[in-house]
Amino acid sequence: MKNSSDRIQTSHAGSLPRPDDLIEANAKREAGTVDEAAFQKKLTESVADVVRRQVAAGITVPGDGEYGKSMGHKINYRAWWSYSFSRLANLKVKGLGLYDMPAHRSSPGNTVLSSFADRRDRQRFATAYNDPESGVSTGPRAHDWPFCVGPLSYIGHKQIAADIANFKAALAASGASEGFMTSIGPASCARIGNEHYKSDDEFVFACADAMREEYKAIIEAGLVLQIDDPAIAENFDQINPEPTAEDYRKFTMPKIEALNHALRGLPQDRIRFHLCWGSWHGPHTTDIPMREIVEPMLKINAGAYSFEAGNVRHEHEWAVWKDAKLPDDKLILPGVVSHATNVVEHPELVAERIGRFTKLVGCERVIASTDCGLGGRVHRDIAWAKLETLAQGAAIASKQLF
Hints:
Elements: E1 9-10, H1 20-30, H2 36-57, H3 79-82, E2 91-93, H4 120-124, H5 126-129, E3 146-148, H6 157-174, E4 180-184, H7 186-189, E5 193-194, H8 200-220, E6 224-228, H9 231-234, H10 245-263, E7 271-275, H11 290-298, E8 304-307, E9 331-337, H12 347-361, E10 367-370, H13 380-401
Parallel strand pairs: 1-10, 3-5, 4-6, 6-7, 7-8, 8-9, 9-10
Antiparallel strand pairs: 2-3
Helix pairs in contact: 1-2, 2-6, 6-8, 8-10, 10-11, 12-13
């Protein structure tokens, strides 16, 4: 991976806004009413354009915008996850959604996930979440959630090959020397219904073995692999009653072990990990503090760690790195612009945020990034303005630091 040896490098968390015609094409494809050859041509052209625009905006480590992950609506919080449903064998849709699942209660020594509807953030602010005009949202409710009904295996080889081919062609055309591609982590992959495996831990390891095929394909193509696994931090809000930090870390470590199992033998310097507390627009008063999860995160066998640091719930946590020991050979990608507000950050504020981290871990080990994916979270015009101000702030910081 690039580091910031002579200037602050810039990247983002993955998802970028899709053009209207691609969203429309995705919707038709999901309905089975699109010409596949025409769709693939549109997708290839769209990936080329989104990479070109990133480079023009000043992003030095671009992604493919996650355009190969179908998004049939402008507002979409799940494409980073639901894309995997078509790439895994033995999943069956049963007409239930995330919010239809039964609620489960934890007890001392028995920490379990509850339903999405039983999230503590949703319970505390139920009126706001149920008010369509409040601006508080987890996105449209889906009722096509799958269940695992047999042994998992990866069947997405053709799809990931197409994603890689589109992205590599776009990188070559734009002149970018490095690019990253996202893939779902095992713990998040396993947050679907399970009717086959005997335990949650067995299921998450099965997800790890299956998704490893995609991880290998991305790395073997010469790209940087980004693992998206918000379940590592976000699960905390989905446990009732609220667990202690110690109990939550015990609950989370098998999921980290499963991810490391999936990454075994793969080069750490080609892998980055994205941690977040969920990208929905809500109060987030029930997030686990960064200080309680940073050490488990650092046990993940990645060469860089991406995390939220620009929104008002987590910005103060830059101070965690006063005490947390970042290994000498690893990088961080703090979010210095946020998906959680329509306000476009000022470049000088972006530079100030970058400076907080460089003072603690060194200039060369900081890549300026976004809190989370911008696609489906903010209007496309705002998203692109945020990437531009990210690059402008990095340029200001670079003049100050180098």
